[in-house]
Specification:
Layout lengths: L1 E3 L2 E3 L1 H22 L4 E3 L7 E4 L3 E7 L10 E6 L9 H4 L2 H29 L6 H28 L12 E3 L1 H64 L1
Antiparallel strand pairs: 1-2, 3-4, 3-7, 4-5, 5-6
Length: 235
């Protein structure tokens, strides 16, 4: 048990909570950071870096752009400047990465909200509370993993990014990997905690069932004794 102030926490639950909080910070930075891929600075590549929501170029001309306008700077994918080649920079697999990353972040925030409640009450010792958190944590980890997997497979595709041999997965991608790893450990810890709480829950149910079964017998016994005493007194 871990004691903070006047509150007690299971060691596994407390460690999992810390890991989920750290994972949430890494996930948020990865989600907002425009550095899932980055080109080596010394190569002079027209592509500079890209994240889930924006890309940065230096004098980049896309073959689908009839005006052959050179793009320099960072551009949000839904900005008017990107309308000519948005389909290129956001292929279906990239939209899937955005989808998985979004749900990974959402599930993480939902878990953090439940953990905030648990730190203020004793509900953290209840199986019916910890087990759903375990499931949500698992869903968060799976979505993070799928985002990493899909991007890792397609991120160096020549049909998507120019001159991928000069590009490297950058810190936003690795932050997501760290977040996914921490979330995986937290899921295992919460699963072990849920197992312990489930055993306690089953024991309490068994005791309660025995008590409820024995209570009517005791009541009938008392009634019979009272009736016998009344008959004796009458006699």
């Amino acid at each position: 048990m871990v004691k903070i102030g006047q509150a007690f926490f299971s060691a596994k639950f407390f460690a999992a909570s810390i890991l989920i909080f750290i994972s949430g910070l890494f996930t948020l930075c990865s989600f907002a950071g425009p550095y899932w891929s980055q080109s080596y600075p010394s190569t002079g590549n027209e592509f500079k870096n890209i994240g889930l929501w924006e890309a940065c170029f230096y004098r980049y001309r896309h073959w689908k752009d009839d005006n052959q306008k050179p793009y320099t700077g960072c551009f949000w994918f839904w900005s008017p400047d990107m309308i000519r080649f948005r389909d290129w920079i956001m292929p279906p697999w990239f939209i899937a990465v955005q989808f998985f990353a979004c749900f990974g972040l959402i599930f993480t925030f939902v878990v953090l909200a439940f953990l905030a409640v648990s730190f203020m009450t004793n509900i953290r010792f209840k199986f019916y509370f910890v087990f759903p958190i375990t499931i949500l944590t698992f869903f968060a980890q799976i979505n993070m993993f799928l985002a990493l997997l899909v991007y890792g497979i397609n991120g160096d595709n020549r049909e998507w990014m120019p001159r991928p041999e000069f590009n490297v997965y950058s810190w936003s991608y690795w932050f997501e990997l760290v977040a996914s790893f921490f979330m995986l450990i937290a899921t295992v810890l919460l699963l072990l905690e849920s197992k312990v709480l489930y055993i306690i829950y089953k024991k309490n149910r068994a005791i309660k069932r025995q008590y409820e079964t024995a209570l009517p017998l005791n009541s009938n016994l008392n009634l019979n004794m009272n009736a016998s005493m009344s008959n004796s007194n009458y006699a």
